[in-house]
Amino acid sequence: MSVLIKNGRIVTAADDYVADIYVEDETVTLIGESLDHVADKVIDASGKYVLPGCVDPHTHLDMPFGGTVTVDDVESGQTAAAFGGTTCHVDFIIQPQGATFGAALEEWRSKANGKQVIDMGYHMAVTDLDEGGTLEELASLPDEGITSYKLFMAYKGALMVSDETLFKTMEVAAETGALVMVHAENGDAIDVLVKKALAEGNTAPHFHALTRPPETEGEATNRAIQLARVAGCPLYVVHVSCQEAVEPIALAREKGWDVWGETCTQYFFVDYTFLERPNFEGAKYVYTPPPRDKANQDVLWNAVRTDILSAISTDHCAFLWDGQKTMGKDDFSKIPNGGPGLENRLQMIHEFGVRAGRISLNRMVELLATSPAKLFGLYPRKGTIAVGSDADMVVFDPDKKVTITAADQHSKTDYNLYEGTTVTGSPEVVLLRGHVLVEGDELVASPGIGQFVARARFGQELRPTTVTA
Ligand code: URP
Ligand code: ZN
Ligand code: ZN
């Protein structure tokens, strides 16, 4: 299968130029002016941007959590991703209590088999080093292409680990070349605040935020950074939501420590007041860390502009409002934590980041594709457009007006965090390794086309297996 993309404005993290791209056997083989190669498919990209397929480093598909299971499985979640211009993501395996890492990996692979629409990798969320996984087994995961370990410092009684487990995992990562990811909140303090709120009869959704103050995120972020320094491992802080967490990351990066952070699309747009919406609407915005005071939104834009934060993910963790979020109608702590977003990241960041003049087009590509690919051992196969890279590309129409609405989305959930928002600029054609996934409103490729990608260790490159010149 060969593809010729003509006259597109190719935008990578570093470059911006008009050229043609020739794709053979799933790989970009030539970039140049006025290419006249014969191809099975020719795409006219005049007036369009050609971007690298976006990489989402933080998603939760088909994941048991909060007494239920996230509503998007691999097929629906990845279909939503494809329509949004994301061609590769890294999903979380959650080690069930008492299970080995191998058993957890098998379970997650079987959930994906035959359903994959885009390429994917896995992080391993470590929950139990006592009864289930051993340090030796953890150390073997990078050989399987699972090169990041995730630890939850919150969700007491569920996913939260002790500092001992966190630190032991960091020591293993220092040995094996894996990246440690943390959900940084002080779970013990939050647990006290939640119990107190409920005892006082405060059960409404906005108490989710009031019982998880920004200081609990700042404290845990700093603790993880200092422990990672002692262990000597690289650290990635997920879903940074507020100034209190940005500050220790900024300090670490200024000092040249091996610390990186991400924020997620929703933290730029949804603020604390959304949680106060009447008739239990507020439950739609119960995710963790919670939506913060609006002032944090400028802090986050500044942090992504200046590379204090290096990536924007979605933390897609979708639940139905009607039937799943409503489990917490009388008790905010029973509302499953998480929100959707896989389909709208590129549209929203292009509109409110690039078009609003907050970040450049190159920086957008870096935040949504190149940096996640580099940090998670996918680059340069993924995250850029270059000879030898996988032909994962988005032909993006910068003039197409779209109003975002749950009625048109591909996620199975029944609401959208950005309902009614009109954006100018949207993916038109999405290619995965040269196969057309999406064309206009059509899903062209069938589930099964996506593949598991064995990722490189932190700081190492993932080289293409074949390059046909
Ligand atoms: O509320 C959230 N973010 N749910 C997903 C799990 C996590 O903490 O990332
Ligand atoms: Zn988290
Ligand atoms: Zn998450």
Explain what you see:
This protein is α/β, with parallel strands linked by helices. It is built from twelve helices and 19 strands. The chain has helices at about 75-85, 100-110, 135-140, 165-175, 185-200, 205-210, 215-230, 245-255, 265-270, 295-305, 345-355, 360-375, and strands at about 1-10, 15-25, 25-30, 40-45, 50, 55-60, 65, 70, 85-95, 120-125, 150, 180-185, 235, 260-265, 310-315, 395-405, 420-430, 435-440, 440-445. Strands 1, 2, 3, 4, 5, 16, 17, 18 and 19 form a nine-stranded mixed sheet that branches. Strands 6-9-10-11-12-13-14-15 form an eight-stranded parallel sheet. A two-stranded antiparallel ribbon has the order 7-8. A hairpin with a 2-residue loop joins strand 18 (about 435-440) and strand 19 (about 440-445). Helix 7 packs parallel to helix 8. The longest helix is centred in the middle third of the chain and has 18 residues, at about 215-230. It is globular and about 70 Å long. It starts with a strand and ends in a 26-residue tail after the last strand. The model has no long low-confidence stretch (mean pLDDT about 95). Bound molecules: N-(aminocarbonyl)-beta-alanine and zinc ion (ZN) (2 copies). One zinc ion binds near residues 238 and 288.
